[in-house]
Amino acid sequence: METKIWKVDNFVDNSENYPQIVDAAALLRDGELVAFPTETVYGLGANALNGEAVTNIYRAKGRPSDNPLIVHIGDMNQLNGLVEVIPELAHPLMAHFWPGPLTLIFKKKEGVFPDSVTAGLATVGIRMPDHQVALRLIRESGCPVAAPSANLSGKPSPTTADHVYEDLSGRIAGIVDAGATGVGLESAVLDITGEVPLILRPGGVTIEQLQAVIGHVEVDKGLLKGEEAPKAPGMKYKHYAPKAPLTLVDGSPAFLQSLVDEKRAAGLRVGVYTVEEHKDLYEADNILAGGTLKDLRTVAENMYGVLRQFDHEGPDIIYGEAFPHTGIGEAIMNRLLKAAGGRVIKEG
Ligand code: TXA
Ligand code: MG
């Protein structure tokens, strides 16, 4: 299959006719797979009401079938037909964070979604992306859009259309290309079906931001200790990983450099994943910096692109700096720990 590319402006004007979006939306409605930008990462969309289309998402990505998809909506009215109840708590959350990088888990309305969307669960994850192109595409298609990140399963999520093309060309009908995404890592997933709101995946909306709006929130214990299974099925898999094994280093640049020196002395090509202010401190085979410690949002924005770049540079191993767990740092470290398969070396 030849994968079409539709180039559009990042901020489409609603008054204008965008034939590219009309074209992409028609394919989506008809059951084809179309990748599109959101404010977090590129998504691989399918009509969420079409079981065969949704099954094709799993095939194209090589995704385990027990990992449910997030359903994307284009306006608030769409929600009513998809969920059983809208809990009280959902209202302030939607008012503050939608459109935006927050996925809410609701009890699903029976008989609406094919089983492949929810992987057979009684709940469904829904979000409204904060991206004009995504919203326009979803509205134009007239259907709720099931979309995981548009990468091959296990690889870093795509933050540009090129990343999507690299992973999925020939496997999907098309890619709507509106340039780089903004946040750079995925939405936070918050389960609001229980007594206490539970974070199943840290993400674009931070824990601090959620607490400021709804007070007490808890974090899924399966994320913290790795003793019980995480409640979001997707969080149990190794993910986001470059080809060369990544190890995180919780310590000073000098300590990280000592680890690099050791491996290079043993004949290995060593990559270092760092930030702008530290990049000149290292001597290694591939030194890639993304963002600045002064604003961790810039680290999030660049993280997946840098992890992918290592695949092109081809080091044997990678050492990466660890980040503070505050704000978006929580989501950054969640993804990096997965990319590193949990490997961390602590100084001292
Ligand atoms: O920012 C994002 O959320 C991106 C963009 C494209 O919207 N999408 C995304 O989808 O990250 P995906 O499929 O890569 O991750 C969805 C996560 C998985 O960990 C999945 O297990 C979890 O959400 N999830 C989805 N539905 C769920 C449900 N009903 N209960 C628990 N976890 C759920
Ligand atoms: Mg993903």
Set down the secondary structure blueprint:
Blueprint: E1 4-7, H1 19-29, E2 34-36, E3 43-47, H2 51-61, E4 70-72, H3 77-80, H4 90-97, E5 102-107, H5 115-118, E6 123-127, H6 132-141, E7 145-146, H7 161-168, E8 174-177, E9 188-191, E10 198-201, H8 207-214, E11 218-219, H9 221-224, E12 246-250, H10 253-265, E13 270-274, E14 286-289, H11 296-313, E15 317-321, H12 329-339, E16 344-346
Parallel strand pairs: 1-8, 2-8, 4-6, 5-9, 10-11, 12-15, 12-16, 13-14, 13-15
Antiparallel strand pairs: 2-3, 3-7, 4-7, 5-6, 9-10
The structure holds threonylcarbamoyladenylate and magnesium ion (MG).
Description:
The protein is of the alpha/beta class and 348 residues long. The strands form 2 sheets. The protein has an 11-stranded mixed β-sheet, sandwiched between helices. A 5-stranded parallel β-sheet has the order 14-13-15-12-16, with helices on both faces. The chain is built from 12 helices and 16 strands. The protein has 2 domains: 4-224, Alpha-Beta Complex (DHBP synthase), CATH 3.90.870; 246-346, 3-Layer(aba) Sandwich (Rossmann fold). Helix 8 links the parallel strand 10 (198-201) and strand 11 (218-219). It has helices at residues 19-29, 51-61, 77-80, 90-97, 115-118, 132-141, 161-168, 207-214, 221-224, 253-265, 296-313, 329-339; strands at 4-7, 34-36, 43-47, 70-72, 102-107, 123-127, 145-146, 174-177, 188-191, 198-201, 218-219, 246-250, 270-274, 286-289, 317-321, 344-346.
